[in-house]
Design brief:
Nucleotidyltransferase, domain 5; alpha/beta
Length: about 210
């Protein structure tokens, strides 16, 4: 309850969230976002994959990012004693997508496809059962409040999710993406020092006022 109150206080504080400009959807350029995660429990190895298609002229600009989840994040996700944290990593992928490609997503209509129903539900509903997922839901809410984009999240079958490829973190995956014209970007991770602060994403995604 205390965290929820701090969340609302920060969200409603004057000057924190920029004035939103409501425009017809047709005015916003389109992009399609895919995120995915991979978890190997035996080796405590988590991989994050992101694919982004940005409408550019008569075609699409194809971008991707991949990275091994930092150990500090793994420890946060397993702090409650859980050993299978694929749902949590799927939500980490959602946050990383907006951090890594924030300039590309700004001002656009974003169609975000996720193949994990637990992470999808937490993103849409703004809450979850586990402590880690609830915290990330708050991060995501601040992220969307600060970012000037219209984001619609939906489910996609795993076999139709291209971000499964970069989440594998191997050379074959990188080659496959390159063959399909994807340009690699460096993954941007959340900051450990600010992770437990509900209003963290407001600092990560500073958007200049017009």
């Amino acid at each position: 309850m205390a965290r929820s109150l701090r969340f609302l206080e920060k969200l409603l504080a004057p000057g924190e969230v920029p004035v939103r400009e409501f425009r017809p959807p047709v005015d916003r350029p389109m992009c399609i976002l895919y995120t995915d995660a991979m978890w190997r429990e035996a080796s405590r190895h988590g991989g994050i994959g992101i694919c982004l298609l940005v409408k550019s002229g008569n075609g699409w600009l194809r971008l991707s990012a991949a990275g091994k989840c930092p150990e500090w994040l793994i420890k946060k996700m397993t702090a409650a004693g859980s050993t299978s944290i694929i749902n949590e990593l799927e939500f980490v992928a959602i946050l990383c997508a907006h951090l890594t490609f924030k300039s590309m997503l700004h001002g656009r209509r974003v169609l975000h496809f996720i193949d994990n129903t637990t992470a999808l539900a937490a993103a849409v509903n703004g809450t979850a059962t586990s402590e880690a997922m609830r915290l990330m839901s708050l991060h995501y809410a601040f992220l969307l409040a600060k970012a000037d984009c219209e984001c619609f999240c939906d489910w996609v079958p795993s076999g139709a999710n291209p971000s499964d490829i970069p989440s594998r973190l191997d050379e074959e995956a990188a080659a496959t993406l390159a063959q399909h014209g994807f340009q690699p970007f460096d993954m941007v991770w959340p900051e450990e020092a600010s992770w437990d602060i509900p209003a963290y994403m407001l600092e990560q995604l500073k958007v200049p006022r017009a």
